[in-house]
Each structure stands twice: as C-alpha cells, then as structure tokens.
Design brief:
By secondary structure, the chain is an all-alpha fold. The chain contains five helices and no strands. Helix content is 61%, strand content 0%. The protein is elongated.
C-alpha cells in the first residue's frame, strides 16, 4: 500500500467537493426543502393571512358561547379572510380556499356570538335583575338574592 490515494477521501489539502464547492447556504450537498429558503411547514407570504383567518374563524365558533368573544373573533376572521382573498386574487398567491373558509367560519362565529349576545340582553331585559340591583344599592346580601332569583328564573 504505497503511494497514491487509497481511501475514499482526497489527499490532505484538497477539497472533497468540486472546485465550486457545495451550494451556498445549504450546509452540505443535500437538496433543499420545497419552497427554497423557507423552513418546512411555513406558509408562503400570501397564505399566512388566509391561515390566520381560518384559525381565528374556527376558534370563533366555540367562543360564541361567550357572546362577545364569538362576535369579536368572528369579525376579525372576516376581515382577515376578505383581505387574504383579495390578495390571492390580485397577486395570484395561494390560500384562496383557506381565505374563503376563514370568511365562512368567521361569519358563523360572528352570527352565533351575536345571537347569544341578543339572548343574554333579552334575558336581562325581561327579568327583574336590573330593578332588583338598583334597589339593593350596594347591599351585598341583597345583590346575592338578586343573583339567585335571576339564576332560578333562567335555570342557572
């Protein structure tokens, strides 16, 4: 075993890569993930707003039981979804389907939140709660009795 290069490695001082070296920024000769320099799973620029609209819209549906939460989150999803849909049409960016789904789920959440808020307002308006609280005038025991009467009347 004398002389010459006997192993898989080049002689000392020579690069293991061709003279042009590995691809810049690749950290090696491995292929890059789809989408070039974006990390795996990160949505493209125009799609991020559509994904946000969809996520907020989905969350707005169960949040509708809090009335204001469903209404607020639903409206936010509507605004984000409309903006993402317009951008996808104008620029041809991806995510139009997610934007539309965000608009739909946001509308559902907003409508459910508004309906629940209306029920709460009507329940308070048609109860004796407000006059009872005014009559209690800061008396803790009287306020507690008003609360108990309201809950009893509406099954809570």
């Amino acid at each position: 075993m004398s002389g010459g290069n006997q192993g898989p490695w080049p002689p000392p001082g020579q690069q293991p890569w061709p003279s042009w070296g590995p691809p810049a920024g690749s950290g090696g000769p491995w292929p890059q993930p789809w989408g070039g320099d974006r990390p795996y799973g990160q949505p493209k620029g125009g799609e991020a707003t559509a994904v946000a609209a969809l996520v907020v819209g989905i969350i707005s549906i169960p949040a509708a039981i809090t009335a204001i939460g469903g209404l607020a989150l639903g409206l936010i999803a509507l605004v984000l979804g409309i903006a993402a849909a317009r951008r996808s049409r104008r620029q041809g960016s991806p995510g139009h389907g997610k934007a539309v789904a965000g608009i739909v789920t946001g509308a559902i959440g907003a409508l459910l939140g508004a309906a629940f808020l209306a029920v709460v307002i009507l329940a308070i308006a048609h109860s004796n709660l407000l006059p009872c609280l005014r009559h209690a005038a800061g008396n803790t025991a009287a306020i507690r009795r008003c609360e108990i009467a309201f809950r009893h009347r509406f099954g809570g």
